[in-house]
Structure formats: C-alpha cells, structure tokens
Design goal:
Pfam families: Gp80. InterPro entries: Gp80-like. Helices cover 7% and strands 41% of the residues. It is mostly beta strands and 188 residues long. The protein has a domain of 104 residues. It starts with a strand and ends with a strand.
C-alpha cells in the first residue's frame, strides 16, 4: 500500500509551517504518490520529478513543499517541509528537486499538527500540517482515518500502552499501566 496518495503543492512567503501556498496564473497542485515505506521508514515519490509548469504570474519564492489530501483550495496541508528557496518569476518553470521527494519517516500512530514526522533527503524536517495518522505505513489526515482496521486499532492501542506511566501518579485523573493492564488513578 502506498504511503501517501494526494497532491503536492508549493509553499511561499515564509517557512513551510507558516507560509502560504503559491498562487497566481498557471499554478496548480500536482497529483503525487509516495510509494510504500521501504526498509520500514523511507518513502520515495513514484515520479523522479514534478514540474509545476510555466508560471503565468510571479509565484514568489518557494520555500517548502506540502502534501494535500485533494486539489481543493480550502484544504489544509497534511505535511510540509523545507526545500532550497527559489524564486519563480513569470515565464519560468518550477521543478521539484528529486532529493525533496525522498522522505525518511520516523513517526507512527497519531501525530498532532506541528510534530516532526521525519526528514527529506535534502535535509528539510517534515512537519505535520494538521493532526495526521501514520498507521500500517499510510499517511492520512486524522479525520479521514476515522475508520480503522482491527490491525490499525491494535497498533494504536499498543502505542498508547507503551507511552503510559507504569506506576500510579496518584493525581486521581491519569491513566497508567499496571502489569500491562490499563488502570485509572482514583482520588479517595
């Protein structure tokens, strides 16, 4: 199963976490597929390069790349990462560097917006643009991951159990793991 199937967009006007998507005549998100996580953590786009065509207006300075679930202008990026800055004036073409299309993914499970998911081969940190899930080697917006297979649910619960404290924090409100059983701290 592919790691991600959706759209690739360009980020301008600042760092990828806070920058805006490129706009202007000639700009459009490009369909993209990142293959299954090889060696358990590396995903590479199925095309060696992505061309955004000829800019019919100045798009600004591209500072990052973003993965989107669809081509709708209203959708938020699933993940963003830096790429070497490059100005795209009218009449030029932006070609995504191949090193930006090889991703090393470290995160698993549910990841909140702003969390580092991994790193692109050219060094840019891959940041979750919204709450996402990486379950069974597939990246998805958490809202689209609402239906999970039993295997995905089991993986998520295992991750939760490993993250819990192993002794009662005695605060009366916390979950903790007691001999691999889920326990709740209760006030007297």
């Amino acid at each position: 199963m592919d790691f991600f199937v959706g759209y690739l967009g360009l980020i301008v006007s600042g760092p990828p976490k806070t920058g805006l998507e490129a706009s202007g005549a000639g700009y459009a998100r490009r369909p993209v597929t990142f293959g299954a996580l090889g060696d358990g953590s590396r995903s590479v786009a199925t095309s060696l390069s992505y061309s955004f065509g000829v800019a019919e207006a100045d798009w600004g300075v591209v500072t990052g790349l973003a993965l989107y679930p669809d081509a709708l202008a209203s959708s938020s990026p699933v993940a963003v990462w830096e790429t070497p800055p490059r100005h795209v004036p009218t009449g030029t073409t932006f070609l995504v560097p191949s090193a930006s299309l090889s991703l090393l993914i470290h995160a698993r499970g549910i990841c909140p917006a702003g969390e580092t998911l991994g790193q692109a081969s050219d060094g840019g940190a891959i940041i979750a643009g919204q709450t996402v899930s990486i379950l069974d080697g597939v990246l998805a917006a958490a809202s689209t991951a609402a239906t999970m297979s039993m295997s995905q649910l089991s993986s998520l619960l295992s991750q939760l159990m490993r993250a819990l404290p192993t002794s009662d924090p005695e605060d009366g409100v916390s979950l903790w793991s007691n001999a691999n059983l889920l326990a709740i701290s209760a006030k007297d």
